[in-house]
Recover the amino acids of this structure.
């Protein structure tokens, strides 16, 4: 049997307390309900999860997942995670490194040789930590072309550009391009494709049965929330853009009930070895972003906090983890405003040992 199957098989028998959870969630909480008031009504909403010591102490949905038919948000509602997806892309690379299929210090051109000479010295480690200097693919897209692009299209755009923002490894600049390339590397190194690798190696073994790196025409996202933006004073569906089909940087759909299981796997070695988790959670580079002194692999690092936000057309999400205090707060929303990071911090403050 393969090592990873041996390591994860016990999860199939694990009577994890949240697997059977259903309905609207835990009882109302006046403090959190007050913070979430603007989401609670006949308009796009949010799902909130608080985990303390591995247990859901708060788990509720607010507002609507589908405005047009009045479908409410529940703990099983699947939201497009946007850049919260990057931690799964990083985990896939680390899994393949454990398998000996690749090294995080491999040159990216070992796997994607069609990249131009400017990428000669770029490594997978630099892609993971946003220090490659490769150009942002959104700046290279033809604004007149309304077709959705995919990870492979990102590669084609970069193939034509023998220039970069800086010498690889010399600086930090957040890069969606880098994570789209990492998804392609996952496919090449695994002999599969990115979405299937995530499904077979991460989602299903962890019991995240409703989580997908979503591809139209390939899978159907159950309990799907659609994204909305407030335009001219009313909520309008803005669920997809020309970049929404790029998977490696932001294409995963998941729910707070599935993310319970993801959070649990980040405390032990059921998915990744301790050394791999340490790589993901350790500062790989300094940044100049607010509230982000350092970046790891798919995680922003601010003191004791590991976090990441995700923003795409019609969705705003955040996960904030305090591993030392066994506290996690997740807010997923299907609207373009507001940014939920301050909300998550306010919610977390009720359980932290010291004020933040």
């Amino acid at each position: 049997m393969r090592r990873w199957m041996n390591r994860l098989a016990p999860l199939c028998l694990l009577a994890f307390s949240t697997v059977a959870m259903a309905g609207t969630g835990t009882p109302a909480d006046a403090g959190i309900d007050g913070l979430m008031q603007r989401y609670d009504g006949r308009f796009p909403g949010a799902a909130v999860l608080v985990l303390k010591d591995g247990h859901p102490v708060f788990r509720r949905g607010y507002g609507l997942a589908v405005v047009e038919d009045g479908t409410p948000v529940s703990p099983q509602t699947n939201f497009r995670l946007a850049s919260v997806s990057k931690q799964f892309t990083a985990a896939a690379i680390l899994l393949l490194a454990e398998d000996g299929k690749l090294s995080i210090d491999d040159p990216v051109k070992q796997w994607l040789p069609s990249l131009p000479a400017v990428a000669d010295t770029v490594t997978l480690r630099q892609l993971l930590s946003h220090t490659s200097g490769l150009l942002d693919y959104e700046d290279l897209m033809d604004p007149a072309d309304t077709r959705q692009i995919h990870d492979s299209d990102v590669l084609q755009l970069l193939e034509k550009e023998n220039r970069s923002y800086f010498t690889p490894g010399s600086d930090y600049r957040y890069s969606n391009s880098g994570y789209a390339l990492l998804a392609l590397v996952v496919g090449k190194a695994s002999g599969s494709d990115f979405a299937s690798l995530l499904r077979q190696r991460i989602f299903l073994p962890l019991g995240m049965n409703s989580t997908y790196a979503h591809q139209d025409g390939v899978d159907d996202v159950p309990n799907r929330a659609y994204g909305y933006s407030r335009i001219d004073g009313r909520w309008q569906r803005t669920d997809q853009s020309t970049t929404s089909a790029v998977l490696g940087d932001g294409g995963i759909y998941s729910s707070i009930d599935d993310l319970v299981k993801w959070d649990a796997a980040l405390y032990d070695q059921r998915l990744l070895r301790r050394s791999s988790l340490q790589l993901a959670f350790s500062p790989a580079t300094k940044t100049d972003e607010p509230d982000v002194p350092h970046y790891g692999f798919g995680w922003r690092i601010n003191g004791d906090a590991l976090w990441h936000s995700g923003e795409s057309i019609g969705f705003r999400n955040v996960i904030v983890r305090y591993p030392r205090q066994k506290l996690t707060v997740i807010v997923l929303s299907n609207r373009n405003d507001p940014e939920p990071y301050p909300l998550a911090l306010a919610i977390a403050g009720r359980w932290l040992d010291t004020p933040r």
